[in-house]
Each structure stands twice: as C-alpha cells, then as structure tokens.
Design brief:
By secondary structure, this protein is α+β, with helices and mostly antiparallel strands. Helix content is about 20%, strand content about 25%. It contains 11 helices and 23 strands. The protein starts with a helix and ends with a helix. Bound molecules: 2-acetamido-2-deoxy-beta-D-glucopyranose (12 copies). Pfam families: Mid1 (PF12929).
Length: about 525
C-alpha cells in the first residue's frame, strides 16, 4: 500500500510505471501464495536443494545465464545501490526480468514454467511463502518491486533475494536455460507485440524490410549516424519455425540465439529517410524462390550479453520467377524501393542505373518549366499560399518515378496488369530494359497523380483521369489486403493511430532507443 500512496504523490512516476506495463498489481495485489496453497502449484514434491552457500550475485543490468534441471532451485542476491536509479528522486524501484532460452521438448504451451520468488527478507531462502512469486510466460518474466522503507539505517544494505525454481518433469534430465537480469533503472529484457517493421517488397531471391521510424537526437542527419552502432538486427528463420517459438515468443534470447537461417552478418543493413523519418532497412539476399520465411527484429542493449528486446515476427514470401528485381536507394528516384521488370542477363546495379537515368532525363524539361513560375518571389506572387514550388517538384518527381519505373510482381492480384515480353508500358522498357519473361505490372496509385494536381500551379494544367474506365488504364486504387493493389511512390500516408495499448513497454523502449542508439 505504501507503493500506491507514492503513485498518487508522484504523477511522473505513475506515468512511467503505466507505460512499462506494470499497471497491473499494485492496487490489487495478487496473492501468489493463495494460488500456491490452492494446489495449483506444480511444486508439490520436495525440491532439489541449492548447493550450500552457492548463491550468485547479480549486478546492475548484467544478466546471468544458467541451466536448471527439473525440480531444482537456484538462488541469487542483488545488493541495492541506495544512491542510484530512480531512487535518487523518488523511491528505490527494482526491475526484475528474465528470458527462457531453451526448455525441455516435452513442455507444452500451457504447462507451468519456471517460477521466480523474490523478497528483501533473507529468510525467504528457507521459506518461500515470505516472497512474492512470478511465473515465466511465453519465455518471459517481469516484476517490479520497491525497497521497503523502514528507517534510513536499514536503507544502507538492502539486499534483494531471488530464487528460481523449476517445475517437476517426468524426464529426470529435463532442463531449462534461462537468463535473469536485475536493474534499478530499466527492464533488462523487453518485448513488444505491435508491428515494428514491415516488408517493403521481395523478388525471387531477396527481400527488403524496414523498421518503423526511429527516434534520433539529431534531426534526420544521416551522416552522423553509424549503422554499426545500431542495436537493431534482423534474424530470418525458415517458415517451419512458425510454431517452434509459440511458447517462447516473448524471449529475446530464445530467438536471438536460435537456429536462424540468416543473421545480421549476412544481411545488408543501412539507414534510410525514404519515408520522411529515419528508418533502418535490411536487405536480405540469397533466399530461395517461392519460399515463405519468418523474420524477427531484435534489439540488443549494449551488445549480446546485456539484454535486449524482441518484436512481433514478420512473414514474407519470395517470388517465383526472375522476371522482377528488387531495387532501392536510387540516387534520383530516392523514394523508389520495389521490384521492377528486368532482363535476367542484366546486373542489379545496371538495371537500377538505367531506370534512374531515364527518370532524371525526363525531369530536366519539367524543372526548366518550373523555373518560369514565380516561386521565390514575394509571398503574394507565389502561386498558392500553402504549396510551394518544392512541393510541386517533389510530387511531380514521385509521379514521374512511379510511371517511369513500373512495379513488378509474379503474383496475379486484382488490379495488376499482365505483361507479355513484347507488351510493355513504353518503348524505354521494351527496348532498353528488354524484359525476357512475362510479369504483372502493379499500376501507380491514383493519388500519386492527384498529388501533382493539388501541389502544382494551375498553369501546368495537370489533370488525372476521372472515370473508372479511363482510370484503370493507367492507375489503380489501394484496396488493402495482403499485397498492395497499386504502387504508391511518395512520403508515406499517415496511418491512423490505433490507440495506446498498455500491455507493453513501448514508451520505455523509445526512451532506451533515444538514449543508447542513435548517437
Ligand atoms: C551506486 O550508484 C552511483 C550512482 O549511479 C554510483 O556512482 C556508484 O558507484 C554505485 N555504487 C556501487 C557500489 O555500485
Ligand atoms: C491452452 O489453454 C487454452 C485456454 O485455457 C486452451 O484453449 C488451449 O487449447 C490449451 N492448449 C493446449 C495445447 O493445451
Ligand atoms: C523475515 O521473515 C521472518 C519470518 O516471517 C520474520 O520473523 C522477520 O522479522 C522478517 N525479517 C524482516 C527484516 O522483515
Ligand atoms: C539437458 O537436456 C538435454 C536434452 O534436452 C540433455 O541432452 C542434457 O544432457 C541435459 N543436461 C543436463 C545437465 O541434464
Ligand atoms: C562506425 O563504427 C565502427 C565500430 O564502432 C567503426 O569501426 C567505424 O569506423 C565507424 N564508422 C564511421 C563512419 O564512423
Ligand atoms: C551491402 O550493400 C552495399 C551497397 O550496395 C555493397 O557495397 C556491399 O558489398 C553489400 N554488403 C554485403 C555484405 O552484401
Ligand atoms: C515517420 O516520420 C515521418 C517524418 O517525421 C512522418 O512523416 C511519418 O508519418 C512517420 N511515419 C509513421 C508511420 O509514423
Ligand atoms: C534453400 O534451399 C536449400 C535446399 O532446399 C536449403 O538447403 C537452404 O537452406 C535454403 N536456403 C534458404 C536461405 O532458404
Ligand atoms: C506471443 O504469443 C502470444 C499468444 O499468441 C501473443 O499474445 C503475444 O502477443 C506474442 N508476443 C509477441 C512478442 O509477439
Ligand atoms: C525537352 O525539351 C526539348 C526542347 O523543347 C525537347 O527537344 C526534348 O525532346 C524534351 N525532352 C523530353 C525528354 O521531353
Ligand atoms: C527557391 O529558393 C530556395 C532557397 O532560397 C532554393 O533552394 C530553391 O531552389 C529556389 N526554387 C526555385 C524553383 O528556384
Ligand atoms: C488473373 O486472375 C484473373 C482473375 O482471377 C483471371 O481472370 C486472369 O485470367 C488471371 N491472369 C492470368 C494471366 O492468369
């Protein structure tokens, strides 16, 4: 109850705690022991006692890895630093987190996992009922405790006692590998089940994946960021592992150290500002055609041995023919990142260059025309109070790139246009790119056209088709669904917020990202 009072007194702390997902038990404490005594406990048998005097000492933000066999008990202690952490300002809070790296193969989704007991009373090592208990779920455990304030002298040497206990198992050698970390500042292990990355596009043997916007302390100055210091990495698993992590899907170490097909050393990563904000992109190559994969974004806090976070997995599937090739990071058409019709004899870099040069050449005459318009004169001479010549040039460029560089797929999706090798959108593709396999063309989205009408001076007399019949000859609409039904080139449309869910430690993560990452 003391804790609750503090919450009322310090709204800042309240907000912080709410965002970390610890809003659960403080006003209505669960009684783990009631559950224990009601016979729900898997620990009815006597336990294998810990080796005497062999408790391990945990230190701030330094997780320990250990293996525990069934019915075993392992002990830890943590010396509270009374002049550190949140306690400097309010009260001494201690964050406990753990990950399961491996578990016995005969443990099912609903079987009870390891239990963690914790208390500031040393007698807990002999009587667990003195401690609080938390179970590992989905490979993850977290708890928050505050140092009891009795009097200031007791503050000096507060020790948190922690015990990890394995359930019984019919297999006597059954064992779990776990990590446990304690900190006075943050969660050593975290997870987030909201989308944190997306698949941009795939071709026959590669895929491009980007993270959500990252928070960076220095605006969008990419040159100040060093990608090798990014905590984010990507792991690509065979789709066969879809259920493998079902009971460990919140565990960073299970996925981080699992049997991935491809990991960071084989994935080309960089930052991009293609959509306005800073995002990290991962180019995964050497994939098999027509194959489904799972990709996990993970974040490491200060290297492999200091904890980290795991995010919701992504699924993607490669295309079934080499008719399309994934290109990105073009110099002129810098917002283009998708598969394009190609000739399988051409190298990726040469195809990318051909398209980019073509768009750049076509843009030259337009930019001359734009210079004739009074853009940089006095405010009332500007063609529109809200749109500038830069907006017009930007929208025109995006439109030009979208129509010059068609998006390619080998899937038959509503809205896609089937192209035989002798039937291309224009002579440039027919004669210069020379596609030698049939493909489907993903038509540009109608709003790419509508953007230039809205952003450019009326003098240009841009217009977009209005009737559905004429629209569908050159554009299409975004119908939603698994695959894009039209090709959008431009800064990302703002996706409506789905409201804050308080089950996860997302804001806390952003704090970590801002503090540790992009410096
Ligand atoms: C306790 O925390 C303070 C402030 O962070 C630090 O200076 C000090 O070294 C820590 N003491 C120990 C014993 O770790
Ligand atoms: C696990 O429990 C849930 C609900 O309690 C149940 O729907 C599900 O079938 C159980 N799964 C297994 C594998 O026993
Ligand atoms: C620890 O628990 C024992 C048994 O309940 C109790 O007698 C003792 O006073 C407790 N110690 C502290 C410091 O609270
Ligand atoms: C842990 O379990 C694996 C099989 O899951 C077994 O091969 C190994 O011997 C066990 N280790 C111990 C220390 O019992
Ligand atoms: C980025 O960091 C790595 C290792 O920390 C270093 O070797 C490299 O020189 C840095 N690159 C730049 C451009 O600063
Ligand atoms: C990553 O991409 C860059 C630029 O395309 C290239 O120079 C580099 O060799 C690639 N690295 C790997 C490991 O593929
Ligand atoms: C990413 O940041 C850019 C620039 O700040 C913004 O325009 C865009 O809407 C952001 N995207 C998302 C999904 O928030
Ligand atoms: C591609 O397929 C081969 C043969 O089935 C397999 O050995 C290899 O691991 C696969 N590679 C990837 C990246 O899926
Ligand atoms: C793990 O799986 C559970 C149940 O399917 C789900 O509720 C949870 O959000 C998943 N966690 C992550 C990090 O994806
Ligand atoms: C650009 O304008 C010049 C002169 O008006 C013309 O000859 C040329 O064909 C135009 N280029 C394009 C790509 O339209
Ligand atoms: C308008 O002025 C800005 C800065 O003064 C310059 O960057 C931009 O190129 C100019 N625009 C045109 C169309 O001349
Ligand atoms: C694509 O699918 C549509 C509708 O299912 C069908 O009418 C059309 O023939 C298909 N195109 C090709 C080339 O198979």
């Amino acid at each position: 109850m003391l804790f609750f009072v503090w919450l009322l007194l310090f709204p800042i702390v309240t907000a912080f705690l709410f965002d970390t997902g610890f809003d659960l038990d403080h006003d209505q404490p669960l009684d783990p022991m009631a559950q224990f005594q009601a016979g729900l406990s898997p620990f009815k048998q006597s336990v294998i006692p810990p080796r005497k005097g062999r408790e391990d000492y945990l230190t701030e933000f330094t997780p320990i890895s250990n293996t525990i066999v069934q019915s075993e008990l392992q002990l830890y202690s943590f010396n509270v630093n009374t002049s550190s952490g949140l306690g400097e300002y309010y009260q001494l809070l201690i964050f406990l987190t753990g990950n399961l790296c491996t578990q016995p193969s005969n443990v099912g989704l609903n079987d009870t996992s390891l239990a963690v007991y914790y208390s500031f009373n040393a007698s807990m090592f002999t009587n667990f009922e003195l401690g609080q208990m938390e179970l590992f779920e989905a490979g993850y455990f977290q708890a928050l405790t505050d140092v009891p304030i009795v009097d200031s002298s007791e503050y000096e040497d507060s020790v948190l006692y922690i015990a990890v206990r394995a359930p019984e198992n019919t297999d006597r050698t059954a064992n779990w590998t776990y990590q446990i970390g304690v900190s006075q500042n943050d969660l050593v292990f975290q997870w987030d089940d909201r989308p944190s990355a997306m698949v941009v596009d795939t071709d026959e043997q590669s895929a491009l994946i980007v993270t959500n916007n990252l928070t960076a302390p220095h605006s969008s100055d990419l040159s100040r960021l060093n990608i090798s210091k990014s905590p984010y990495s990507l792991l690509v698993y065979s789709y066969d592992y879809k259920d493998y992590f079902a009971s460990l899907n919140c565990s960073w170490c299970a996925i981080r150290d699992g049997p991935a097909l491809l990991s960071s050393s084989e994935i080309n990563t960089s930052y991009t500002t293609r959509n306005g904000g800073i995002q990290q992109q991962f180019y995964v190559s050497n994939l098999n055609s027509s194959t489904k994969y799972l990709a996990y974004l993970v974040s490491d806090f200060g290297g492999n041995s200091f904890g980290g976070a795991i995010y919701q997995p992504l699924e993607f599937e490669t295309l079934d023919s080499p008719a399309c090739e994934l290109i990105y990071d073009l110099e002129f058409c810098d917002r283009v990142a998708y598969s394009v019709p190609t000739n399988k004899d051409g190298s990726k870099d040469s195809v990318k260059q051909l398209y980019d040069d073509q768009a750049k050449n076509l843009f030259t005459n337009f930019s001359k025309a734009l210079q004739q318009i009074a853009c940089n004169t006095t405010a009332d001479a500007v063609f529109s109070p809200v749109r500038t010549c830069e907006d017009c040039a930007d929208s025109y460029k995006d439109w030009l790139c979208a129509v010059t560089i068609p998006r390619c797929s080998t899937r038959n999706v509503t809205g896609y246009k089937y192209r035989e090798t002798n039937d291309s959108r224009n002579d440039f593709i027919l004669n210069t790119i020379e596609p030698n396999l049939p493909y489907y063309e993903v038509l540009p989205c109608l709003n790419v056209c509508q953007a230039i009408v809205a952003d450019c001076p009326a003098d240009f007399q841009f217009s977009c088709p209005k009737k559905n019949v004429s629209i569908e000859k050159s554009y299409y609409f975004d119908l939603g669904g698994r695959y894009p039904t039209c090709n959008y080139v431009g800064t990302e449309k703002v996706v409506s917020s789905r409201g804050l869910r308080n089950t996860v430690n997302w804001l806390l993560l952003l704090v970590v990202v801002a503090a540790n990452v992009l410096v």
